[in-house]
Structure formats: structure tokens, C-alpha cells
Design brief:
Elements: E1 6-11, E2 14-22, H1 30-35, H2 38-43, E3 66-68, H3 73-76, H4 80-91, H5 94-117, H6 124-139, E4 154-164, E5 167-169, E6 186-195, E7 198-207, H7 213-229, H8 236-248, E8 251-254, E9 257-260, E10 262-263, E11 269-271, E12 282-283, E13 299-307, E14 314-315, E15 321-324, H9 335-347, E16 353-354, H10 355-360, H11 367-375, E17 379-382, E18 385-386, E19 393-402, E20 407-409
Helix pairs in contact: 5-6, 7-8, 9-11
The structure holds ligand HZT and manganese (II) ion (MN) (2 copies).
One manganese (II) ion is lined by residues 201, 270, 301, 303, 397.
Cofactor: Co(2+); Zn(2+); Mn(2+); Fe(2+)
Biased composition (Basic residues): 39-48
Binding site for a divalent metal cation 2: 201, 270, 303, 397
Length: 416
């Protein structure tokens, strides 16, 4: 990695707009000089505004997300005295909220950096490396001595999803993947950032071709509907029903055929537990009859998937995503599997990981051992999830926090 020789000065009004100032020998009018010399300009090191985010927030207080009122009746009845008690209760979790806000602020910066660089003909490997290198730098994941806790106390929350077209979720390149992003593709970018095990799970859909605009709008509106419906004591099936109604109210015309947008009915949102991407509750995107309720203090990923295909996904293709199961687990019966599990325990714990992360740790020829851990139920595999070939799927996802008095869309940005 190129050594940084620049100081980044944030414009607090617009966190994406940065002013870079030279340090040391370079004169202040350097930019003007360089402009007159193309050769010199090409040689000049690209200035990066990606550095440990803690340096930009010396008081370690991270910005709040978008606050939303609960709109259901039972919440409107709250009195001022009750309101005070809610606020007192909320204070008990202040560190947790702050950790999630830090993860969300990193997420916004990571995705803004990618959005500035994304273009057709990039390889998917370039896309995920752009995301993951930025996440590592913003969190200080790779800084020496910064993080002694294992698994790492902050960093990548799960493998970066870059699922194309009929593939809705859980695609990330394995080593040697030569897949390229094309102008006609519909790509779901799903990025995870974790701080002290609190995971921000947030995704959007990229399409260069405007013919997909209605598909993307259907899914964006369906996700915001899910977010508006979410609340303490709200039944999960009711959220699914509202999402479905909005999603199905959209049509998209592609190459002369009109499709009603369908939810991918076997995909869903979920609550998130410390170091665990799914905490046991699923938020459906269709009416499914699940009367389980959301509860105070919970942390959910609200995500919806829309498709021009058949409306459900099946696992298929080479697997890249894995996560260690939690609870009492058997001991691996192969020594190679036992050694691999040690690497997993030390680096990921129960956080999802992918084969590329094992490669960069120096693991080699581990596939037999990894498959063995899956067979023994120690590790769960998460293969790519696909609708029918030729279909197009889109996704939008935010992480929300159910505070006692209000909900917070912690990952909300000015992009989505
Ligand atoms: C699993 C493995 C990962 C969780 C949802 C999701 C991406 O479909 C209960 C409900 C990352 C995430 C997940 F590496 N999945 N959100 N973002 N994928 S899920 C699920 O397996 S479990 C939904
Ligand atoms: Mn996600
Ligand atoms: Mn999710």
C-alpha cells in the first residue's frame, strides 16, 4: 500500500467532500503546477481520503441515523413521564448505539467511495477489493496493535455481496474469478461493517441502464415500506404484507415484455445479534402468517428483493460464503479441519467469512477441510441464491434500531 503523505480535512457539512492538503516540501500551489505538466500529473500519487475514522471523530461520538416515529397507536399513547423513562432506558445502551453508528458512518463512506469508482467492465474482484480495502482502513482492522481482541473488534462484517442479475444474494468472487460487471447488469452490492460485533448490514442495487429503473424503484419503495411498518410489538407477517403490496404495485418493461415485480418470497430480513448476522427472527417480504413480534432494543436488517422471475430463489453455483454455527458443536474429526477451525475461531468467530479471507490469511488447499466442517455441522455454507436464468433481481436493505421511544435507520445516507 502506498504510504499516505497527505492530511485529509473533512467538510462537516458534506462528509463525502474532502479537501486534501499537502504536508511538508510540496508548495501550496502544487495543483496548478501539476496541471501544466501531464507527465508529472500521471506520476503523482493518488491522494486517499480513506483512513481510520477514529481520527475524524476524536470524541468517539458518531452521527445518529435517521430517526422515525413509531406510527402504531400503542406508541402514540406515551406520556411525557413515560417518554422520560424510555429515554433513561435508552441511555443504558448508549455504547451499543454508538458502535452501530460508527459502523454505519463507515458503511456510508465505503459505499460512497465505491460509487465514485464503479463503472462497466470492472471485475467483481476489483469491486469487492475496493469495498473491503476501504472497510479495513476506516475501521483500522489491519492496524498493528490496534485490535487485540479475537475475532477482530472491528472490521468487515461479512463478505461483500456482488450478486448479478438472476442471482439475488450471497455471491462474492472466489480466487481466480474473472467475472466482469457489464453495462446491462443489475448488481446487488451488500456490505457489512462490524464494531465490537454489532453488524451494520446494508445493501443497494446498481444498474447503469435506465430500463431497470422501475424494478429498482419498486424494491426501494418496498424496503422503505418495511422500515415504516417496523416497530415494537409489530407482527412480522404484517410487515411482509405491506412490503408485498407495494412491490407488486410496480411493473417494469424489458425488451417489449411487461413484468409485474414479484417479491422473492423465500428471502427475508432478519434481526442481528452480536457477532451473528441472523439472530433468529426473519422479516418476511410476503404475508406469511408469522405472528412473532419485533421487540424493544432489537436491531434488524430490513431488506426486500424484487424480481422479474418466478419469485423464489434456489441455492446454486460455487459457494463462497460461510459462517461458524453457534451453540455446542462437535469436535472436527480431521486434523486438517481442526486446524482450519482454529483459523476461523481466531479471525471470524461466528461472523460470516468467504474463501478469499482464508486465502489472504495464508490458508491453502483448505477446501476439503472446509467442506468437512460443513458436513459436520460446525460451519454453515451460504451458497449463491438464484431466481431463474434470464430474470433480474434487485435488493435494498437498511439496518434499523428499535429504541424505546423511536426507531433509527442507522445506515441511512443521502444516496439511499
Ligand atoms: C448470511 C450469510 C452472510 C443472512 C440475509 C442477508 C446478506 O439470507 C435469516 C434471514 C451474510 C448474511 C446472511 F454471509 N442472510 N443479508 N444480507 N444476506 S440470510 C437470512 O442467510 S438468515 C435471512
Ligand atoms: Mn445484507
Ligand atoms: Mn441482511
Amino acid at each position: 500500500m502506498a504510504k499516505e503523505d497527505t492530511e485529509v480535512i473533512e467538510n462537516p457539512e458534506n462528509p463525502t467532500e474532502v479537501v486534501t492538503e499537502s504536508l511538508g516540501e510540496k508548495p501550496a500551489d502544487e495543483d496548478a503546477k501539476v496541471a501544466s505538466s501531464e507527465k508529472k500529473k500521471k506520476k503523482k500519487k493518488k491522494k486517499s481520503n480513506i483512513k481510520n475514522i477514529a481520527l475524524l471523530y476524536p470524541d468517539e461520538k458518531y452521527p445518529e441515523g435517521q430517526w422515525m416515529d413509531y406510527h402504531q397507536d400503542f406508541n402514540l399513547a406515551r406520556t411525557t413521564d413515560e417518554e422520560k423513562r424510555y429515554l433513561a432506558r435508552d441511555k443504558d445502551h448508549e455504547q451499543r448505539w454508538n458502535d452501530m453508528r460508527k459502523g454505519a458512518e463507515i458503511h456510508r463512506r465505503v459505499r460512497k467511495n465505491l460509487q465514485n469508482k464503479l463503472k462497466p467492465d470492472m471485475t467483481l474482484t476489483d469491486v469487492v477489493n475496493t469495498v473491503e480495502d476501504a472497510t479495513r482502513k476506516f475501521t483500522g482492522q489491519d492496524a498493528n496493535g490496534d485490535h487485540v481482541k479475537l475475532p477482530k473488534s472491528q472490521g468487515i462484517g461479512f463478505p461483500t455481496g456482488v450478486s448479478l442479475n438472476h442471482c439475488a444474494a450471497h455471491y462474492t468472487p472466489n480466487a481466480g474469478d474473472k467475472m466482469v460487471l457489464r453495462y446491462e447488469d443489475v448488481m446487488k452490492v451488500d456490505i457489512g461493517v462490524q464494531v465490537n460485533g454489532y453488524i451494520v448490514d446494508c445493501a443497494w442495487t446498481v444498474a447503469f441502464d435506465h430500463k431497470y429503473d422501475n424494478l429498482l424503484e419498486a424494491v426501494r419503495e418496498a424496503t422503505y415500506t418495511g422500515i415504516r411498518e417496523a416497530g415494537i410489538d409489530v407482527r412480522l407477517t404484517d410487515i411482509g404484507e405491506a412490503i408485498q403490496e407495494v412491490m407488486e404495485s410496480y411493473e417494469v418493461e424489458l425488451n417489449g415484455t411487461t413484468y409485474q415485480v414479484k417479491p422473492c418470497r423465500n428471502l427475508c430480513g432478519h434481526n442481528i445479534a452480536p457477532y451473528r448476522i441472523h439472530g433468529g427472527k426473519s422479516v418476511p417480504i410476503v404475508k406469511n402468517g408469522d405472528t412473532t413480534k419485533m421487540e424493544e432494543g432489537e436491531h434488524f436488517a430490513i431488506e426486500t428483493f424484487g424480481t422479474t422471475g418466478r419469485g423464489f430463489v434456489v441455492p446454486g453455483g460455487e459457494c463462497s460464503h460461510y459462517a461458524k454455527n453457534d451453540g455446542p458443536l462437535p469436535t472436527p474429526n480431521l486434523s486438517r479441519a481442526k486446524a482450519l477451525l482454529k483459523t476461523i475461531d481466531e479471525n471470524f468467530g461466528t461472523l460470516p467469512f468467504c474463501r478469499r479471507y482464508l486465502d489472504r490469511l495464508g490458508e491453502d488447499k483448505y477446501l476439503f477441510a472446509l467442506n468437512n466442517l460443513v458436513k459436520q455441522g460446525i460451519v454453515q455454507d451460504y451458497p449463491p441464491l438464484n431466481d431463474v436464468v434470464g430474470s433480474y433481481t434487485a435488493q435494498f436493505e437498511h439496518t434499523i434500531l428499535l429504541h424505546p421511544h423511536k426507531k433509527e435507520v442507522v445506515s441511512k445516507g443521502d444516496d439511499y
